[in-house]
Hints:
Largest sheet: 7 strands, mixed
Number of strands: 11
Number of domains: 2
Radius of gyration: 22 Å
Strand content: 5-15%
Helix content: 40-55%
CATH architecture of the largest domain: Alpha-Beta Complex
CATH class of the largest domain: Alpha Beta
Number of helices: 12
Amino acid sequence: MSPLAQALQKPAIRRAIFAAYSLFTCGYLFWRVVFTWNQEHPLYSGIFLIAEIACILSSFLFYVLVLERREREPVAPRAGLTVDVLIATYNEDVALLRRTAVAARDMRYAHRTYLCDDGRRSEVESLARELGIGYITRPSNEHFKAGNLNNALARTSGDFVMVLDADHIPRENFLDKVLGHFRDPQTALVQTPQVYYNIDSFQHSVSARRRRFWHEAAVFHHAMQPGADRFNAAFFIGTGAVLRRSALDKIGGFATGSITEDIHTSMRLHAAGYQSAYVDEALGLNLVRNSSPIFSRPPFHTPEFAPQTAARQARFEL
Length: 318
């Protein structure tokens, strides 16, 4: 790590930089309003001023979010908790699914593993039988992934539910690292970051000389989510998470009616008074999307769905 990067790890230095940024930004806004307002074209001038203020407010919120992070100390889990591991799949390659299923089955803490197959494929059922794990399917694909998970909830009974995508390979100590954070009965969700093993994707920047690599989503997983955790605002990202079943039952299961069912579920849990936690540790490995056409699909353009999610959540609360 370079001297500059080491210095930026210190909270006092980050606060000083943020204070300087805030001071200069306020000075700029004063100059912008007092000296650049076009009185002959107030509508035109006002539109651009409002756009600038919106951008500045957005940047303030972002910097406040990542200014500091909450570090979670390891907590040993209680013995005897019951856990159902749900691997959601639709049409993924069976070889890919096998790696995830084997790793999930072999996690150390006692649990039950299920392949939740919305593709109703005989080869996936055979895989589950071969590996000695459960197989769950349904006659339709109503509500897509959320509907698949809700169907599995109705057919399982564990106190906690771990959700994995078909390409998410958990480490054997995943549950040991996560379940201890549920000692608080109000904690409904513990989320972990997505870390990718195919570092040759176009989203990665790899430096062999510096022995380091960076991924496009690193800011979100390792800065924004730990920062949001300070405000009880870390949210479910659809995989690599454990949720409390009783909390899911209280909000009616995984949220449906939105393509961003993960964040929508988080919003409902927080609205119901539950807590969330974020463990910023690589407890699993994912396969990142590695082509620009695939990259353009959800969740990478989720800003398109943010208004939809907010509107649906508002209706839910009403």
